[in-house]
Amino acid sequence: MPRKRFDLKGMRLSVVIPVYNERATIEEILRRVEATGLADEIIVVDDASTDGTRVYLQQQAPGRFRLICHLFNRGKGRALRTAFEAVTGDIVLIQDADLEYDPGDYPALLKPIVDGVADVVVGSRFLGGPHRVLYFWHYVGNRFLTLLSNLFTNLNLTDMECCYKVFRADVLRRMRLRSERFGIEPELVTWAARLGCRIYEVPVSYYGRSYAEGKKITWRDGLAAIWHIVRFGLTVRPRPERPAERSPRPAEAAPTANPGHQ
Question: Tag placement on the chain: N or C end, fewer CB within 10 Å?
Answer without folding.
Answer: N
